[in-house]
Amino acid sequence: MNTTSPHLIPLVEMTRGGTLENRHFGAVAVVNTRGQLVAQAGDPHWLTFSRSTLKALQALPFMQAKGHQQFGFGTEQVALMCASHNGEAMHVTTAQGMLEKAGLSYKALRCGCHVPGLFTLLDQAPPVGLQYDERHNNCSGKHAGFLAYCVQHGLSLDDYTEPAHPLQKAIRRDVARAVGMAPEDFKMGIDGCSAPNYALPLAKLAYGYARLASGTQDSEFGESFATLSTAMTTHPDLVSGTGRNDLAFMRAGRGDWVSKVGADGVQVIGSKSRGEALAIKISDGNKPALFAATVEVLEQLGWLDDAQRQELAPWRAREIINARGLRVGERLPVFQLGGASA
User: Which of 75, 93, 107, 146 has the CB geometry, 3.0–4.6 Å to 231, for a possible disulfide?
Assistant: First the structure.
């Protein structure tokens, strides 16, 4: 637990045989496009790393410089820049196309190589002899966009993930503008893909996504936000992939919800029509608890109709089923959103 913000509350409890087994603590912030906190649970200002929820905002320097137009990136390529993808064929093909448009080989990527998320994230055994490279990395689209920006501006490629690189300085500047902070106030860490990542108050992250979802209504980043959010909602399969939560949430949102998950228990969803976004963090990073809590926030905010409620029921995961199909416990939300406190 973050000792600088002790006001976390139980969000989800798991029982087995009617006895409490696990209690997952966290916080929720709901913020509008004016930066106003409209609902909360726990400490909405909890300082937490944004992880992969930051990706759409990390694309801002490239979008502001019209890089997507210069290199002929369509909505598929823009969506992949915001993705934490499965490394499926559609993702690898899109990443490869981005690199080719920038005149680069996949060997220029500095994101590292890991077993495709199609297997690790869905708890499936990879086939024997599976071959994969940096293009299969869940962050390859983000890094392909990074590289294209460097090509566009004549910047060095070998060190583009270094915090002192002009690209990363531009990202820090634009992310700060998007969330309403000063760049020097960010706490920096290195993400799993080797790029800098920033810790910020949960409410500031929600504010950034409320603005992202508002698209052209945003007076500062409007065209960039509109292109990014439209690409994400048009191609949620590229943003995530088969069996993933962002695909399910954005499909359920019917084009209105811009959804992005981050590692270790972070989820953000912005509503285009409402001009609001929720940001949630589960302190222990438990994914089933995170998704259950997210659906409950949507429920309490009144964002769900009956069809959406049914569609997202598997992500609420109220019943805990074992390998034999026996119902052995429950996973229940135990929080209530409150209005903004002074």
Answer: 75
Q: What pTM does this model have?
A: 0.95
Residue 5 has pLDDT above 80, yes or no: no
**Structural domains of the chain, ranges and CATH numbers in brackets:** 9-333 (3.40.710)
Q: What is the CB-side half-sphere exposure of residue 303 using CA atoms within 13 A? A: 27
Q: What is the token pair recorded at 71?
A: 């290199």
Answer yes or no: are the C-beta atoms of 259 and 250 closer than 8 Å. Answer: yes
| Contacts of range 90-97, beta carbons closer than 8 Å, 24 or more positions apart | 90/237, 90/238, 91/135, 91/136, 91/140, 91/141, 91/238, 91/241, 92/135, 92/136, 92/140, 94/141, 94/238, 95/135, 95/140, 95/141, 95/144, 96/135
The predicted structure's pLDDT at residue 33: 98
Q: What is the pLDDT of residue 341?
A: 57
- Per-residue pLDDT, averaged over 15-26, amounts to 97
- Which residue pairs from 150-154 have beta carbons closer than 8 angstroms and sit at least 24 positions apart in sequence? 151/102, 151/103, 151/104, 152/62, 152/65, 152/67, 152/70, 152/71, 153/65
- List beta partners, residue 187: 199
Q: Hey, what are 145's tokens?
A: 């966009």
